[in-house]
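Two proteins follow. First one:
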Amino acid sequence: MSAALLVGMVVSPGEARGGDAPRCSAWRAAGKGYEKLELRTCAPAEDTSDESDDEDEVSAVEIKSGYEDALKVRVEIVTRGGATEQLDVKLKNGENAAGTCKACRGHDDVKSFRVTAQDGVGEGKDATPEPLQKVAGTNHMEVLARDLRLTDTNAKRLDRIATRYHKATKKRLVVTGGTRTPQRQAQLMFDKLKRGDDVVALYENKAAATEVRNAYRDAAGRGEKRKGTIRAMREVIEAQIGRGTYVSKHLKSGAVDVRSWAMDGALEKALREAVKQEPGVTLMDERDGPEPHFHLNLP
C-alpha cells in the first residue's frame, strides 16, 4: 500500500476503525490560569463480543501539558448529566494518562472541567498548611508591600514571573501589595462600595463578597458612619476566615499586587505573558480604582 494511501486513512478524533482503536473526544483547553493544559476522554477499544456491557464502560482521561515543569493538579470533571469526578494527578510535559472517569457515560460526556493546584498540601479542617515566609526584593523584583508573606511554592512562582518580566523588559517588577488583615480588607471593600463598584463581580468568591456587601448595606441602612460600617464588614470577614472562607486571597497570603504605572503596550504584554507561563496564576486588571494595579491570584 502506498504512503499516500496510508495518509488518507488517518482517523479523526471521535472515530474508530475496525474495533481496534479507542474513540476519543476532541482536546479541550483548561480555564484561566491553566491555558497550557488540554483534556480529552477516550473510550476503550471497541468490544464486539456478546459479553460487552456499555453500562460498565469507563472513559480514560488524558491531559496534555504545555508546561515544562511537572505539575500536581486536581481535576474536577462535570458530566453532561451533572455527575462529578475528581482526579489528583501529576503531569509532565506532553501527553499524560490521568486516570479514568467512572461517572462518564461515553467518551464525549464531559460538559466542563476545572483545574486547581494540588501542591501536595492537604485540604479540609485538619489539613496542615504550608508555612509562610517573608519575601524580600531581588535583582528582578522590588517589594514595596508592607507585608509580603508567601508559601515557598508561591514565592518561587512570583520569582519566576519577575525573572521572565525582567528578561523581556530589563525592568524590575514592583510589588505594592501582599498580605492583608481583615481590617485592611474591610477598608478597601468599603472604598470600592462607596464608589459604587460591583464587588460581587470583582471578587472570585461571590458568596463571601455578597456577605460583605450586605454588611455594608445593613450598616448604611442603620445610619452607621465609615468607622462603624467598616467594623461591621470586618466582623463578617473575620467570621468567614473562622470557617475557612476567604473573600480575597490577600487574607491568606495568596495574592500580590503589582504596580501598573506606565505599564502598557509592550510592558503589559510582557507581564501577561510572564504570568501565563506560570500554571495556576491568574491576572486581574484593577487599574480603574484609586490605587491602580495588576492583581495576581496565586494557587
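Second one, unrelated to the first:
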Amino acid sequence: MDGYLTLRAGAQAIGEFVDRKSRFIACLVHVDSERAADAHIAAVRAQHHDARHNVPAWTLADGRERCSDDGEPQRTAGMPCLEVLRGAGLTDVCVVVTRYFGGTLLGPGGLVRAYTAATQEAVDAARAAGDIVQMTLVTRVVAQIPYAAYDRVTRMVADAGGKVTDQLFAEDVQLTLAFVAGTEQPFLDALREYANGEQLARASEPAFAEF
C-alpha cells in the first residue's frame, strides 16, 4: 500500500440522523491502534452512558477492522457503519454511533439506513472541514550542509520533488527533508556529487505521513 486516506490526527467529526424520534449521533476520530480505538469507544460510552446503544466500528491501515452491533439486531448497526468507512476509503479511523431510542421500533431496514446515514454525515462533515488527509509512504532525509550551499541544496530538493520540513541553523545548516518513498535517491546522488563524494545526508526508513 503506497498511501491511504484517514482523518487528520486530533480532528473529530460529528454526524447526526433522526428517524421517528430516535437520534443517531456518529463521532468519528483518527486512531492508529486497537488501543486507541478502544479508548475512543470507552470515552463515547462514558459521555453517552444514558443512551440505548453505542455502536462502534474501526479500521486500521494494517488491515485489522472490527465492529459491534452493541445489542441491536445482528448486522443492522456495526457492519453498516464499517461499510461507510470502507466506501469512503478511510482507514486508521474509529466511529461510534450513539442511539437514543425514540420509542418506535425501526425494523432491520430502518436501522441499517439510520446507522449508515449517521456515519455518512460524520464522514461528510470531516470532508467539508478539510480533515480527511492523504497519507503517503514518505522517506525522511536529514542533510547537514554549509551555509554557502543552502540555496543550491534547497533547489536540488525541489528539483527532485522533495520538501523541506524543518531546518536548524547552527554552525552549519541541518535540513530535514521529505520525499515520496523511492524518489529520494536522485537527490542523494546529486548531493553526493555536489559535495565531491562526501556523505552529507542520511535517509530514514519509509513511514506513512502527510506529504
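SUMMARY FIELD: Residues 133-210 form a domain with the Alpha-Beta Plaits fold (CATH 3.30.70.240). The chain has a mean pLDDT of 94.
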